[in-house]
User: Fold this.
Amino acid sequence: MTQLLDVRKMNILRAIVDDYILTAAPVGSRTLSKREDIELSPATIRNEMSDLTELGFLEQPHTSAGRIPSEKAYRLYVSNIMDRAKLTDEEAEYIRAHLERRVSEVGEVIKETARMLSGITKYTSIVQMPHLKNARLKHISLIPVTTGTALAVIVTNSGYTNSIMLDVPSGITAGHLEKISSLMNERLAGYKLVDVQKTLLPLLREEIGEQADSVAAMLSSLSEDKGRRGYEVVGAANMLDYPEYADVSKARSFLSELERGEIFKEVLSDGSGVEMTVRIGTENDNPELKDCSVITVSYRVGGEQVGSMAVIGPTRMDYEKVVAVLRCMSESLSNVLSGMLLSEPDAGGSDK
Amino acid sequence: MTQLLDVRKMNILRAIVDDYILTAAPVGSRTLSKREDIELSPATIRNEMSDLTELGFLEQPHTSAGRIPSEKAYRLYVSNIMDRAKLTDEEAEYIRAHLERRVSEVGEVIKETARMLSGITKYTSIVQMPHLKNARLKHISLIPVTTGTALAVIVTNSGYTNSIMLDVPSGITAGHLEKISSLMNERLAGYKLVDVQKTLLPLLREEIGEQADSVAAMLSSLSEDKGRRGYEVVGAANMLDYPEYADVSKARSFLSELERGEIFKEVLSDGSGVEMTVRIGTENDNPELKDCSVITVSYRVGGEQVGSMAVIGPTRMDYEKVVAVLRCMSESLSNVLSGMLLSEPDAGGSDK
DNA sequence: ATTAGCACTCAGAGAGAGTGAGTGCTAACA
DNA sequence: TGTTAGCACTCACTCTCTCTGAGTGCTAAT
Assistant:
């Protein structure tokens, strides 16, 4: 693929985006020519800008204003900074240290992640709770609630609990449920939730015979994500600091949308396997996000994706910083969680 | 106590408050004289308004504007509408019906309560999760997490789960914990959490002898509220609809404060025994709430207070409506929860 | 005690002028 | 041929000024 733009155009475009990200005001030719990294006269720059406008990288709010970057420009800009976005060692250290302080409980770690993301970037952050499927089972209780439903309370290593309502197949009695949970507790503690099912099946066959299969089906929702996963949202109010949301009604609809929670389906959509995705403006399906960019990254436990986190900001967000922070945060969170969730199953507590 | 204001002054003041609540604009004498319930000339009204201003019930933004009610006026106004605030039967029915549809899980009921509160009033609502102490125990697991800490997972009737980190006294082993939980499950299911402790103590003495007391102490935090209680906040963005928050920076600081969560300590403070409290403007300790009014009401399970809910709005909120809605909501939620949490402990599930 | 009348106040809306950052085009220059 | 200086033009913003109208307080008449 041949270079889309020559070096000079690239430089000018980058400078415009940089400037616009900082000031949110249309950038003019004179402003650019004053920068030390561009040694051209305003007139020359105007010519280049005119070209860039024609190519669709710049837009003009009105004739006598400067130019602002188009979504296409951000796209190009992002693909360029993607490699070099990197935090200083101190910043990375800061993140790691803060995250490891909170090592007591998964929920707390997720909350702290969201807080830091929004604290450092000054945008809105969303962090999803980790998927359970790779966590190791510490304890499970199946508690009948009404006819046909039971509550599964799962505790994994390090005090991460989650409860999921299950539909109990007809024919399974409370007695069965009790037997199943004690079976699981005795024989399956320390197993991964995904493995629990297949390991459990033969055991079940012995115990309850023909109904084993329907029970297994019921339990399959444990390792899936039936109990809709929680997430932490922090810094929604930050958006009000940006001139993009100076208009209260705009801010209002953004915040309402956030509260509705529908956004998350899209924002945190798994992106199966992709490390990081950047959605700029109208690339977001949700029309409420058409003036926003959303950068999503997944995090892992033991090499496998178990959740995502995202930062939402105005389209002119500081992509470089956000990408760098998210990358680092994903790394750190993955490490911390892996440490917590994959530690060898202990024998059932520590005697004195 | 003799009447503070004569009838005519009261009428005028009420009319001013009514009008200001509706329009958020200073009310003038001519506007008032046009109302059918006030048959006085503007001049007369001006005289009365002048008196009311002197008495501290009205304020004047500037010489040539109308009057706006002072906090003192709201106070008086509220004490008057307190009795007559009442929903129509249809509205009350609507609330009851909606709440009872969600009868499957306590968390859902609380969320729905918050949603309805904010949906009907158009203000911000906060609803606290119920205190556990009066819930009946369905299941408990004590799961060792690290040396010195264990996770208590409590399931009460109707699938309400809560987990609390406990400090395990030294000398108590994982084996002990296991024994204690199975003891509790076998013998104490159906008991109230507050009663569990005292009923458990003799049983514990038999089983683990001298350490019984330290275990009982540990379990005491179950019926207290150590694991800080959750709450649902809905409709924060609603505040942006009111001209009071047309200034973005004001909105921003309000929302940030909400997110910080410190507000709740004050807002939901138990008010031990008081049915409903109305805090107007600077009556709130939190300076961020000095332009807001907060109306709090508690709700009960089986006659005992187990939580509160609140509506936060601008000082010129529609007190009558909010009081009425909160009163009804408290009643309905209390009923629904009592139904869910106090139902006789079933024998452990329903066989087919 | 109430009201009509009148002079006065003052925020807010609207019109018009001035300012300055920006553009596009043309012609000169290296 | 690419770059730059010069110039006329555009247009959002800001500032100032005026006008308007809703409101007041006081006084005198009813």
Notes: Residues 40-44, 47, 61-65 of chain B lie near DNA strand C (CB under 10 Å from a C1').
